[in-house]
Write a structure and sequence with these properties.
By secondary structure, the protein is α+β, with helices and mostly antiparallel strands. The chain has 2 helices and 5 strands. Helix 1 runs antiparallel to helix 2.
Length: about 90
């Protein structure tokens, strides 16, 4: 199990990024959350098997069709045994 926190920069709000991310995370079997930040970025936390989390890291580098991802900052976190994936505020 690994855990990664990401901050996604670019045109990532108002393009269904969070809901698309939730669906992708559920398909990948990854736990965590995704939320918009006041500065226009999207922040997410992914926890799960290394291959599944890596799949999500690859997905956020592109996002849904209308997103324009400019940069993704990734930091390592300690896994905490989360379950489920939520869209938060």
């Amino acid at each position: 199990m690994i855990c990664r926190r990401v901050v996604v920069h670019g045109l990532v709000q108002g393009v269904f990024f969070r809901d698309s991310c939730r669906r992708e995370a559920q398909r990948a079997g990854v736990s965590g959350w995704v939320r918009n930040q006041p500065d226009g970025t999207v922040e997410a936390l992914f926890e799960g098997a290394e291959d599944d989390v890596e799949r999500m890291l690859e997905w956020v580098r592109h996002g849904p069709p209308y997103a324009r991802v400019e940069r993704v900052d990734v930091t390592e976190e300690q896994p905490s045994g989360r379950s489920g994936f939520a869209v938060t505020r």
